[in-house]
């Protein structure tokens, strides 16, 4: 039992690694996740619209893109982008692999987010589009103002779930060999574990990951519940009193 606790819960190593986890690892994990989520959301929406197009020259490229980046393992995509494009993009990013890590995560995220958006848009009843067209809106305006907002609202839980997956996938960027100040949570924990031969630093890194992902998981459940049950409308007791007074006075027939 003592050996188990010493291997996974050595408080000396945990307290030693925590400052780096919070000041460097957490910051870089959030930068990688949020940046790739924003880029992936924009590209994903474009992919969703292209995938729903009646024009084959728009629909097929979106389908091929989605199949490729959903079919490849995330770590393989990160290696191909980070190492393959690293030599081609050296004039732009130099030897810094950080932007390439964000690019790889964005490409992966956009493929999944695009499918989420496409499913949400397709779930909106066709009558919504027909009604907006009947009011004189163009197809583009109907999609932007009526259909897409409803579709996005319906897939909010799935979008938050995808962001949770993105936070965890950010740990794979370590394979690109980030600089010391660019290390994310997993890499900091792994480096200390390699130096000390003790896994407590990785347990500490896992704890910080849980601090990020567990609240988001509960947020997904909350959003999903609100979307399914709707917002509870509280009755106004004053309104009932006013109705009773009107009924007694004869202004409203009971």
Automatic annotation (TrEMBL):
Record keyword Nuclease present: no
Places the protein is found: Cell membrane
Major subcellular site: membrane
Ribosomal protein found in the keyword field: no
Residue ranges annotated for the ABC transmembrane type-1 domain, each copy included: 26-220
GO biological process: amino acid transport
Start-end of Acidic residues biased regions: 236-245
Keyword terms of this UniProt record: Amino-acid transport, Cell membrane, Membrane, Transmembrane, Transmembrane helix, Transport
One Gene Ontology CC term in the entry: ATP-binding cassette (ABC) transporter complex
CDD domains, sorted: TM_PBP2
Signal sequence residues: none
Region (Disordered): 232-254
PANTHER family per UniProt: GLUTAMINE TRANSPORT SYSTEM PERMEASE PROTEIN GLNP (PTHR30614:SF20), MEMBRANE COMPONENT OF AMINO ACID ABC TRANSPORTER (PTHR30614)
Protein's UniProt name: Polar amino acid transport system permease protein
């Amino acid at each position: 039992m003592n050996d188990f606790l010493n291997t996974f819960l050595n408080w000396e190593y945990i307290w030693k690694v925590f400052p780096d986890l919070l000041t460097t690892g957490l910051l870089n994990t959030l930068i990688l996740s949020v940046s790739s989520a924003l880029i992936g959301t924009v590209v994903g929406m474009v992919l969703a619209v292209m995938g729903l197009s009646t024009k084959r020259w728009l629909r097929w490229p979106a389908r091929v893109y989605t199949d490729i980046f959903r079919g490849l393992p995330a770590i393989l995509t990160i290696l191909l982008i980070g190492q393959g494009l690293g030599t081609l993009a050296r004039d732009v990013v130099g030897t810094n692999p950080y932007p390439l890590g964000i690019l790889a995560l964005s490409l992966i995220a956009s493929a999944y987010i695009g499918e989420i958006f496409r499913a949400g848009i397709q779930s909106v009843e066709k009558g919504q589009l027909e009604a907006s067209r009947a009011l004189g809106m163009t197809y583009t305006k109907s999609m932007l103002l009526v259909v897409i907002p409803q579709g996005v609202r319906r897939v909010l839980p799935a979008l938050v779930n995808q962001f949770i997956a993105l936070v965890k996938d950010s740990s794979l960027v370590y394979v690109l060999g980030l600089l010391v100040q660019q290390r994310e949570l997993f890499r900091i924990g792994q480096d200390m574990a390699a130096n000390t031969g003790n896994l407590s630093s990785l347990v500490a890194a896992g704890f910080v990951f849980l601090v990020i992902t567990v609240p988001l998981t509960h947020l997904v459940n909350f959003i999903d519940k609100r979307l399914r049950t709707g917002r509870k409308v509280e009755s106004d007791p004053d309104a009932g009193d006013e109705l009773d007074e009107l009924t007694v006075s004869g202004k409203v027939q009971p």
